[in-house]
Design goal:
Belongs to the protein disulfide isomerase family. Its main location: endoplasmic reticulum. One of its GO terms (molecular function) is protein disulfide isomerase activity. It is a single chain. The protein is an alpha/beta fold. The chain folds into 4 domains: 101 residues, Glutaredoxin (3-Layer(aba) Sandwich), CATH 3.40.30.10; 103 residues, Glutaredoxin, CATH 3.40.30; 107 residues, 3-Layer(aba) Sandwich (Glutaredoxin); 105 residues, Glutaredoxin. Strands 1-3-2-4-5 form a 5-stranded mixed sheet, with helices on one face. Strands 6-8-7-9-10 form a 5-stranded mixed sheet. A hairpin with a 5-residue loop joins β9 and β10. The chain is globular and about 90 Å long.
């Protein structure tokens, strides 16, 4: 009897477990078997961008050369290939640049103690700009026992993979077969100077007044050590510093007359050091401990002008500096003469802490893109601050005066400023299926805790974004009746928000309802309507169901002949189909 009772209890428990599990299995099966073919029906061809090359780190996707771009040029520019109009290289005298392939690469390394190798792509604009500078450097250095070479990474893919080539150009310096990335500017003088420092002593003796005058005439920035001896610990510290600083030439002397010509008191206690610049602040004297770290810190803090004029040539010295806090003046050329001296006076107070920069906003090539990045419009003057460590921007209010700049810079360095984020005006109407998000309505739309939000961060010039647009619009049309879902987009070139970080375009982010305090999810899925739909079904906090129906576009009038279709649609479902 007891055994029978146990059997009944076990049977009852098993029944209850099965009754609980089976519905869930059925539900999952129904979801897996959900007929989504109606989502794939399109009026035009939908592009699966996941199948295109990943270019989120490319310069083209981040900083366009032109605000307007031919409609058909996007994919060619971003994939780096044009079948109809192949790139034609200009004539460059590169006879001294060695062409390397898989077949001769090993011999090149084996037979040369020093060498430089550029991995390039024929279509790469940066590589094209580098080509004449690289060729000129090769010619100048061939007498120094250093060969410069190049590898077409689009043809030598095995070599490119072996050397971890992920961007163009990638330049390595090789010593006895060991390679390190070349860190300096991409022009002839920088390449030559950097390589000579790597293979030589890094420091040059100045023994005569003729040599001193030649150096002062030809060099824009020089450091001179006035030493007790041209060999020994003092010289070693100076030489070691020289190898750390690629863009400054270091000299040493024991000659009092040479020291005087370099604005050093001949009677000063040695070792002494001076940095000379062709700038508003022409002379900087070192008064610290004569060791590599202190000398390097002194030169780094003082080598830039009080105010650096932003250009393609000066950009590397700004962004590669160890000083990551920047103070920027934006103004047109015709009013800059009034405000640059004001910034120079303020900059003297923050040497070694801030880099002060003037950006000419009416310079289309270099100034306008920077102004756009900082959300600056008009003629100026406008002051902005930038922290390179966390990419935050700050805006100064009030007139551009010495006292205002001083107070603003002090608050910036002390961390007392609130970051500034760009924003377009909030749209007067926002009734489309894809909601338009700007910086100033981001919190209201995207961070609404009651909504699951899919956000595309795009750029108007981005070819991939244009290809995605019809698919994204179609997805929004299908989901327009789901009140808990928002399909949105934001122009990432003119709007910013700390929750919307983009490394390239398009960037797809998902903000689940009730979880807006956390970082958004990156949407790593295919770029079709079905892919997006499945992603949303899986990750949405608020469950939803989409039923098939016949779509009647909102912007098209309904004809009388379609009445039967409408009647059939309304009897089946209230959802819409494309």
């Amino acid at each position: 009897m007891t055994s029978f009772r146990c059997f009944l209890v076990l049977s009852l428990v098993s029944f209850l477990l099965l009754s609980t599990v089976l519905p869930s299995i059925s539900t999952n099966d129904e979801q897996d078997d959900e007929d989504l073919r109606f989502l794939e029906e399109t009026e035009g061809k939908s592009v699966d961008i996941a199948s295109l090359p990943h270019l989120s780190d490319s310069d083209d996707d981040q900083f366009p050369d032109n605000d307007e771009e031919d409609e058909d040029s996007g994919s060619e520019q971003e994939t780096g290939a044009s079948l109809s109009d192949p790139y034609k290289a200009p004539q460059i005298d590169d006879k001294d640049v060695v062409v390397l392939t898989q077949g001769n690469f090993s011999d090149f390394i084996k037979n040369n103690k020093f060498g430089m190798v550029e991995f390039y792509a024929p279509w790469c604009g940066h590589c094209q700009s580098l080509a004449p500078e690289y060729a000129a450097a090769a010619t100048e250095l061939k007498g120094e026992g250093v060969l410069l070479a190049k590898v077409d990474a689009t043809q030598e893919d095995e070599l490119a993979e072996e050397y971890d080539v992920e961007a163009f150009p990638t330049i390595y310096f090789l010593v006895d077969g060991k390679h390190t990335l070349y860190p300096a500017a991409r022009n002839k003088d920088a390449i030559v100077t950097w390589i000579k420092k790597q293979i030589g002593p890094g420091i040059y003796n100045v023994t005569t007044l003729d040599d001193a005058e030649r150096i002062l005439t030809s060099e824009s920035e020089v450091a001179l050590g006035y030493l007790n001896s041209l060999v020994g610990p003092e010289s070693d510290e100076l030489a070691a510093t020289s190898k750390l600083l690629d863009d400054i030439k270091f000299y040493q002397t024991m000659n009092p007359d040479v020291a005087k010509l370099f604005h050093i008191d001949p009677e000063v206690k040695r070792p002494a050091l001076v940095l000379l610049k062709k700038d508003a602040e022409k002379i900087c004297h070192f008064d610290g401990l004569f060791v590599k770290t202190a000398i390097s810190e002194f030169v780094t803090s003082n080598k830039l002008p009080l105010v650096t004029i932003f250009s393609r040539e000066s950009a590397p010295s700004i962004f590669e500096s160890s000083i990551k806090m920047h103070l920027l003046l934006f103004a047109t050329l015709n009013i800059s003469e009034k405000y640059i001296p004001v910034l120079q006076e303020a900059a003297k107070l923050f040497k070694g802490k801030l880099i002060s920069i003037y950006v000419q906003v009416d310079n289309e090539e270099s100034g306008k893109p920077v102004a756009n990045f900082f959300g600056v419009s008009g003629n100026g003057p406008t002051i902005r601050a930038y922290s390179g460590d966390d990419a935050k921007k700050f805006a100064m209010n009030g007139d551009v005066t010495f006292n205002n700049i001083k107070a603003f810079a002090e608050d910036f360095l002390a961390g007392r400023l609130k970051p500034f984020y760009k924003s377009d005006p909030i749209p007067e109407t926002n009734n489309e299926d894809v909601k338009e998000v700007v910086g100033d309505n981001f919190d209201e739309i995207v961070l609404d805790e009651s909504k699951d939000v899919l956000l595309e961060i795009y750029a108007p010039w981005c070819g991939h974004c244009r290809s995605l647009e019809p698919t994204y619009n179609k997805l929004a049309q299908h989901l327009r009746g789901i009140n808990s879902l928002v399909i949105a987009k934001m122009d990432g070139t003119t709007n910013e928000h700390p929750k919307a970080k983009s490394a390239g375009f398009p960037t797809m982010l998902f903000f689940p309802a009730g979880k807006k305090s956390f970082d958004p999810m990156k949407v790593n899925t295919g770029r079709t309507v079905v892919d997006f739909y499945k992603f949303l079904k899986e990750h949405a906090t608020i469950p939803f169901n989409l039923k098939k129906a016949v779509l009647v576009p909102k912007d098209k009038p309904t004809k009388t002949s379609d009445s039967k279709v409408r009647e059939k649609s309304s009897s089946v479902s209230s959802k819409e189909e494309l």
